[in-house]
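[audit] Reproducing an earlier prediction to check determinism. Same input, same settings, fresh worker. If the tokens differ from the archived copy the diff job will pick it up downstream; this log only records the rerun itself.
[audit] input (78 residues):
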Amino acid sequence: MASGISPENEQFIQHELESGIYHERGALLDDAVSLLKRYRDLQREIQAGIDSGPSIPAGEVYARLEDKARKLAASHSP
């Protein structure tokens, strides 16, 4: 199994270290792994939304909200 970092990614890591954004490679890699975890969580959430059923067009959602707001305002009018 091949291991290692691509030359492009290694160059990016070196740039980040040299620029002072990160002071050590481990901190940079910890942040990179944390971001990857967040990305994977987001992918799962998106898929769960897709799997939950058909979507509702935004215009329909806004129309429903406007209708509810009108009814609520009418019920609270003197």
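[audit] rerun output stored. Observation attached for the diff report: The helical segments are 7-19, 25-51, 58-75.
[audit] end
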